[in-house]
Write a structure and sequence with these properties.
Elements: H1 9-20, H2 23-31, H3 38-63, H4 70-78, H5 80-112, H6 115-118, H7 120-138, H8 142-167, H9 173-176, H10 189-199, H11 215-244, H12 247-252, H13 256-301, H14 320-335, H15 340-372, H16 379-401, H17 405-425
Length: about 425
């Protein structure tokens, strides 16, 4: 691939930050309202853990410069079967996460157009339209999708930062230091899942490595910059929302940023944040649909996914994008009900667990690579890499332990369903007995 057809630091960073700043930024304040100021502590600790994971993926991508991201790293260390399961799990995580974005977009749109909630035909048509709009954009090629990602990121980050910085003048320290009593750490489990969901996508730029200019430099820069940008939006936003909106009102708020915009700037602020919310959540679909095509494409090129997924169109867009969007549409249609927030939480849980397994395996693969490459490292470098491993491992294990057994069981079923697909994909390479 010619270098002019690849994407640079700005577009790569936009892919990382754009995939993270979506429904997590706009819906999390409402989902986390019962936890009061524990939320702010959670954001800070999650940022530290996310940075640990970001550094893990950055270093793995410099050691293994192949497309595919998480599954490629796992495949290199654990072999094809583990690599397949990571690709399979990560692919479905992207699909279920994208469905939550569609539902979140409808929720924000219903503030502006109340008929969206009461008219199933309108809501289903709008949801399907959003899916296929960004599918069409992605089928134009990765450069087109990356350009759209930059524009969408600017359109959503600027208003969110305006609200965040404006709200700093209204900080009520008595409000942001209210910590609801907790019996034990297990009562914070629902908060952990939402916080982790908000940072899913930090590894995005490691997936289309073959489309990245100078990946050994661009991928680490884009990953770290994307996580820091996202953390800035989340932490400042959390402080502002908890200061501007009274606790009881926040508990019942369906769109905290819209309410904050109304309180700070009146009707214009409300309208601006409704539009920002729609753009932010729907726009995140663009990057996630890109991932949905690139993961099965890379896996098929490695021979661990059906060969169909290795096909591309004239613009180099993987045909797998169409397959993923068809699955998204089917699941969206089959699960759609009026209770949008309930389905957002369900899709978040499924997406988080389906991502945690690849994260965990990548952290272990990172440890393996440290050991095998220790002869080429200085003692100082080795020390810092072990520290990064520790932070990422603790963060990932805590997140896994915070997940409900029901959702973990669903992930196990998903992995079992994938086993026959792996056998089908590898059928030509298995020697006859």
């Amino acid at each position: 691939m010619h270098n002019s057809e690849k994407i640079g630091v700005v577009k790569a960073t936009s892919l990382v930050a754009g995939n993270m700043i979506g429904s997590g930024a706009l819906l999390a304040p409402a989902l986390l309202a019962p936890f009061g100021s524990w939320t702010l502590v959670g954001w800070i600790l999650t940022t530290i853990g996310a940075l640990g994971l970001a550094l893990v993926f950055s270093r793995l991508s410099s050691w293994l410069t192949k497309s595919g991201g998480p599954f490629t790293f796992v495949q290199h260390v654990f072999g094809d079967f583990a690599g397949f399961h990571m690709a399979w799990s990560y692919w479905f995580s992207a699909i279920f996460g994208s469905i939550s974005l569609v539902i979140g977009t409808l929720q924000y749109t219903s503030i502006f157009l109340p008929d969206v909630m009461s008219n199933p035909t309108l809501s289903i048509g709008l949801g399907c339209g959003i899916i296929w709009l960004f599918t069409f954009i992605n089928m134009k090629g990765i450069k087109t999708a990356a350009t759209v990602e930059v524009l969408v990121l600017i359109m959503k980050v600027v208003p969110l930062l305006v609200i965040a910085f404006a709200g700093l003048f209204y900080i009520n320290y008595s409000t942001i230091t209210q910590f609801p009593p907790i019996d034990d750490l297990t009562s914070l489990k629902p908060m952990v899942c939402v916080l982790l969901w908000s940072f899913l996508g930090l590894e995005s730029v490691t997936v289309p490595t073959q489309h990245i200019k100078n990946p050994k430099i661009t991928i680490p820069l884009a990953t770290i910059a994307g996580v820091l940008m996202t953390a800035l939006v989340y932490i400042l936003g959390a402080i502002t929302i908890n200061s501007v909106i009274p606790g009881e009102s926040l508990l019942s708020s369906k769109a905290p940023y819209v309410d904050a915009g109304m309180m700070l700037f009146g009707e214009y602020g409300k309208l601006g944040m409704i539009i920002t919310g729609i753009i932010a959540i729907a726009g995140s679909l663009n990057g996630w649909i890109l991932i949905q095509g690139q993961v099965p494409l890379s896996a098929a090129q490695e021979g661990i996914f059906p060969a169909f997924f290795a096909k591309t169109n004239r613009q180099g867009a993987p045909i797998g994008v169409i397959c993923s969007s068809l699955i998204m549409t089917f699941v969206f249609l089959s699960t759609y009900q009026e209770s949008l927030l309930k389905h957002v939480e369900l899709m978040i849980d499924v997406a988080v667990v389906a991502t945690l397994l690849p994260y965990f395996y990548c952290v272990i693969a990172f440890g393996y690579m440290i050991v095998t490459k220790r002869s080429s490292m200085s003692r100082k470098e080795s020390y810092w890499l072990w520290m990064i491993l520790f932070v990422a491992l603790v963060y990932t294990l805590f997140a896994i332990c915070s997940t409900s057994t029901t959702v973990i069981a669903a992930e196990l079923i998903l992995l079992l369903i994938g086993a026959p697909v792996f056998c089908y994909s590898k059928r030509g390479s298995v020697s006859k007995i």
